[in-house]
Every structure is written in C-alpha cells, then in structure tokens.
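The passage that follows is intended for readers who have already worked through the single-chain material. We present the inputs for a multi-component assembly, then the predicted structure in tokenized form, and finally a short commentary. You are encouraged to pause after the input and sketch how you expect the pieces to fit together before reading on.
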Amino acid sequence: MLSKKLRWKLLMTALGWAVALVIAFPVCWLVLTSFKSETEAISRIPHLFFHATLESYIVVQERTTYFHFAWNSVVVAIGSTILALAAAIPCSYAMAFMPTKRTRDTLLWMLSTKMMPSVGVLVPIYLIYRETDLLDTRTGLLLINALLNLPIVVWMLYTFFKEVPREVLEAARMDGASPLRELYDLLLPLAMPGIVSTSLLAIILAWNEAFWSLTLTAAKAAPLTAFIASFSSPEGLFYSKLSAASTMAIAPIVILGWLSQKQLVRGLTFGAVK
Amino acid sequence: MSRRETLSRSALKLPAIVSLFIWSVIPLLMTLWFSFRRYNLMEPDRTGFDGFGNYRYLLSDPSLAMAIGNTVLLVASVLVITVGLGTLLAVLYDQVFFGRGIARVLVLAPFFIMPTVSALIWKNMMMHPDYGFIAFLMRSVGLKPIDWFAVAPLTSIIIIVSWQWLPFAVLTLLTSVQSLDSERKEAARMDGAGPVAIFRYILLPHLGRAISATVMIETIFLLGIFAEIYVTTSGGPGFASTNLSFLIYRYALLEYDVGGASVAGLVAIVLANILAFFLMRSFARNLDL
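Having made your guess, compare it with the prediction:
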C-alpha cells in the first residue's frame, strides 16, 4: 500500500507531465519533422518512428539564404539591445539613486508609450523611412527595436538598480567620485547580473519581433521572422525543410529564454511580481 | 542637492526621455495630420485637405466595426483562457513531483517561439485539414477533420495566441504562488480549511497583483497581434479574422490609402488608450516604486 503522500506525488507527476507534453507538443513535432524525409513529413498518418536524417538541414543551408537572414536577426537583436542599454543605463541610474517627485510619473509615462499600438503609427514611420532611405535596412529595424524595448529595459534596470544598497554608492560620492565614475566603477559591476538578464530579454523580444520586420523590410534586411513568414504557403519549401529552417530560427532564443526565465518574470511585470 | 548634481541628473535621463518623447509624439501628430488629407501612395496627384472625408469613409465601412469587434474578442478571450488556465497550472506546477523542473521548462517553450514560426506550426502541422495532427486525431476517432482556418478563423487565431501566451501567465502566476508564505496556508489548514477554501480565500487574493500585471502586459502585446493573422488567414475569409492591426496594414500597405489607414490608426490608439487608462490605474496601485 502506497502512502497517501507518495500517491499524491505520483498523481501530480502524471498530471504535470501530461500537461507539459500537450503544451510542448507542437514544438516537439516541429523539431521531429525537421529530421524526417520529405515523404515521411507530409504523410496523413503521422510517423512517430522514422530514420532520422539531417538532409533537410543540409538542403536549407545549401539552397536558401538562411544565413543571410540569420545574420540580419543577430545584428538587429544585438545592436538594438546595445543601443537601448546605452540610453537606459544612465536614465535608470538617475531615477533609482537620485529620485525626484516626478520619477514615478516618468516611469509610468514611459510604460504608456508601450501602450501605443505599433499599427497606429505604421503609416508615418513607413513614410519617414521611405524619405530617409531607411526602408529595408538593418539600421532602420535596429532603431525601431531599440525604441520598442527602451521602456521595458529602463523599468527592468530600475528594479535591479533599486536593489543595490545606496550606502555603497553614497560612500563613493563622499570620497568625491563623480556620478559617472560612480556609475561605471561601482554600480555596473554590482548590478551586472541584472544587466545581463535585461539584455537577454531585450534580445529575445527583438529576435521575435514580427510586425515591424514584416512591414519595413524586404529581401535585403529581413530578419528570420520575415524569412519564415515568406513560407506561409508550403509550396515554396517542403515541410521538413521548413521545419529545419524554423528549428534553426527558434533554437538560440528558446535556450536564452530558458536561461533567463526567473528574471524575465520580474522584468516583464516591472517588479510587481517577484 | 547642488545645482551641478541636478544638471547631471537631468543629463543622464535626457537621451532615454527625449527619444521616447519623439517616438511617441511625432508619429502620432503625423497620423493625425494624414487622417485629414487625401493621400494615396498610388495616386500622387490627388492630394490636399479632405476634411472629415476619410473619417466618413472609414466610419461607414463595416470592416472597421468588424475589426474592432475582432480585436476586443481576441484580446478578451485570450486573457480569460490564459489567466484562467494559467492559475490552475500555476497551482499544479507548485506541487512537488518527479521531474518538475523539466516539465516546467517544457511548458515555457511556446513563449519564446517567434510568432511567425508558431503560426506556421499550427497552420501546417496541427490544423491542416489533411496533414495536421488534429485532423489525424479526429480521423482516428471516426470524425471528419475540419478546415480550421476556413470554418473557424478567429477561433483558430485565438487558440494559437492562447497557446503562445499561456506560458507567460503560468510563469508569472507560479512565481507569485511560490512567494506565498507557507505559514499562512499551514495556519488555515490547522483551522480546518479545505484545499478549495485555501485556494479561494488565501491564494486568489494573494495572486491579485500578479494577475493585474499579467493582464496589463498581455493586453499591450495582444492589441498588436499581427504575424499570426498574416501567416495563417491574411485576415480572411472576408474580414472574419481581421483585427485593427491587420486592417491598418491592409489599408496602408496593400491599398496604399494613407488617409484611411491613419483614421484606423487613430481608432486603434484611442481604443488602446481607453484600455490603458483603466489598466495603468489598477497596475500603478499594485506597485511600490
């Protein structure tokens, strides 16, 4: 006879795993399909057992310009994150350590800019980009992503900076350190874990951003989101090749996401949930 | 605080504040300006003021009402599904069981998948009437598979988007469940409270903060759902799965009607602001800044 406690644990194990597998199933299926041959991939009766082959990955590398789009994604995601950090670090530092009566309003105002729907301003941005030759350039997409993520980056850094003891910084100021020295020599090393997770989140958001990628870029500067979307009808690329390209597009970001999941909660809820 | 310090404080904040200010004000003013003008990228000669012409045209276009309805329905359904299911799953994944860490990681996966890829997975591998896994399941129990995107386009989009956002709700709510003081639960149990009573009177009130944060963040992102529609139904059939984002895209980049798109853009901004007003108020109360 099993003890009541163990029975409960077994029941929870079964339930927890069943739910997890159902939710993750579409992703697992995508990855499985990418290792199938084309005939197995497009069968009406799903093949759970098959001869795994890397053929699709090889074909994707040879025949498409996957790496051109992947490079665009890398440049835009990392570039926009660096740009957003450059503006956000001094701002969050000032708000966290030299707060004024208006700091709270400023923070809420910044968040409210996130509420502005992207589509509402699609037309002007499109026209400005057309006039300034920024359409279909990596620079253009990088700028947009930096601005889109700036409020979230400021908030995240603000919540992390708030946790650094003020006394440490005040002691340095007493010794005559300027605010900039204080920032670079003391705060940045102390808050490094927070800055890293903020960067990871900004990279994930920019990597997955789809609206502006689809509307502002074409062949030249399109990142992976737009590249994958171009296969919305499967004729262009067959199932297993499409799956291989998709798997390569999501793998790095899923791994980054898993690494930063704990901080992600705090970041995305702006410190309301810890 | 000395004058020098005040100056350096402002200088530090300036880049972020100025760029966000420009980003939020200039496009908005331009949208407003274009909304009163005759402006079609295909007909560069027809320009000039049109008064409320665009407004009259758009507000009498039944597709706008449909797009607003679809937007509201999409956001509301996904919120109810993700927060409702998310609360139950948060309680489930708070239990101690074998391999809990890996199970949690699996649950989170959909959140990190780019929207275009998740739309393609669902379109080709899950909901496809011939090759989709759901069709296979339906056939194997003797049912006739349905063509999801033709028969129930908006429902299909709601399913896909809920799948993507459920992990986020689980993650935030689980974090909140875990921060609940176990002594309070213990004390309630000692007083004879059953699991349902503990859930209702201790856990749910504790989750209030996390739920309001989840609702706010999800609303911000759900109002702008675009790629899922773009890849799967292109807003169709007809306007059955067109939301405001997709309607504006249709006006602006498929029909090149800048004036009409600008009016629709303003409608989207007004709608978002009404929602934002209520959300921000309840959210700000839940923050200790």
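Commentary: The two ends of chain B are 21 Å apart (CA to CA). The mean pLDDT of chain B is 86. How closely did your sketch match?
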